[in-house]
């Protein structure tokens, strides 16, 4: 005769309260050594012991993460005291080295008509005279011939022709900055102002 046995529900194994208290007192952290290698999860006491064994200190990297991330590193030496600089010297140095250059962008195409082309060149000239760097973008558009109101066929320029025309028109106020970026169907280059901007 077979007797059916009633199976009891499965439960997690009981953890002694003493072990829970030790885990709470010694949290688990993610440890990184001096070379940046991930050493995995260690308890705080193990991390301190490994740092002392490698003659280094334990530095927190990200304590808001769970588990917290700590790294073993050398104790930073105390920097030597620098002589006091006169008032305003730091501000003058910062303003001289951190000069901000505002860049304006003007876009052309190889099908831009003469009136629009001259207007864009005039805008670029205005920006250069104000002391701004101008980024020029010339895009190739070659979708066949167009006809204007007078039934005249408008032929498109090549990228080289458009770039040379822009540089020649702005040669008195700007100079080429760096090299021309050529990706086949678009040329991108920048012009720096030749003369400093007028005082305000």
Instruction: Sketch the topology as an H/E string, one letter per element.
Output: HEEHEEHEHEEEHEE
Shape: elongated
Amount of beta strand: 25-35%
Strand order of the largest sheet: 2-1-4-3
- What is the fold named in CATH at topology level of the domain at 104-142 and 156-193? Translation Initiation Factor IF3
Helix content: 25-40%
Structural class: alpha+beta
CATH class of the domain at 104-142 and 156-193: Alpha Beta
Largest sheet: 4 strands, mixed
How far the N terminus sits from the C terminus, by CA atoms, comes to 108 Å
Q: What Rg is obtained from the alpha carbons, in whole angstroms?
A: 35 Å
Assigned CATH superfamily of the domain at 104-142 and 156-193: Translation initiation factor 3 (IF-3), C-terminal domain
CATH architecture of the domain at 104-142 and 156-193: 2-Layer Sandwich
Number of strands: 10
Low-confidence runs: 14-23, 77-98
Quote the average pLDDT: 75
What is the count of helical runs? 5
């Amino acid at each position: 005769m077979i007797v059916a046995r009633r199976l009891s529900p499965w439960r997690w194994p009981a953890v002694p309260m003493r072990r829970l208290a030790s885990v709470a007192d010694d949290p688990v952290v993610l440890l990184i050594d001096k070379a940046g290698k991930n050493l995995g999860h260690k308890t705080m006491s193990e991390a301190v012991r490994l740092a002392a064994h490698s003659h280094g200190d334990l530095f927190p990297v990200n304590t808001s993460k769970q588990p917290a991330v700590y790294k073993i590193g050398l104790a930073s030496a105390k920097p030597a005291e620098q002589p006091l600089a006169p008032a305003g010297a730091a501000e003058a140095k910062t303003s001289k080295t951190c000069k901000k250059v505002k860049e304006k962008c003007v876009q052309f195409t190889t099908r831009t008509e003469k009136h629009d082309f001259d207007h864009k060149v005039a805008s670029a000239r205005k920006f250069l005279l104000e002391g701004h760097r101008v980024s020029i973008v010339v895009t190739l558009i070659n979708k066949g011939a167009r006809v204007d109101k007078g039934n005249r066929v408008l032929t498109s320029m090549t990228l080289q022709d458009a770039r040379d025309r822009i540089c020649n028109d702005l040669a008195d106020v700007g100079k080429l900055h760096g090299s021309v970026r050529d990706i086949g169907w678009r040329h991108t280059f920048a012009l720096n102002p030749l003369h400093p901007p007028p005082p305000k």
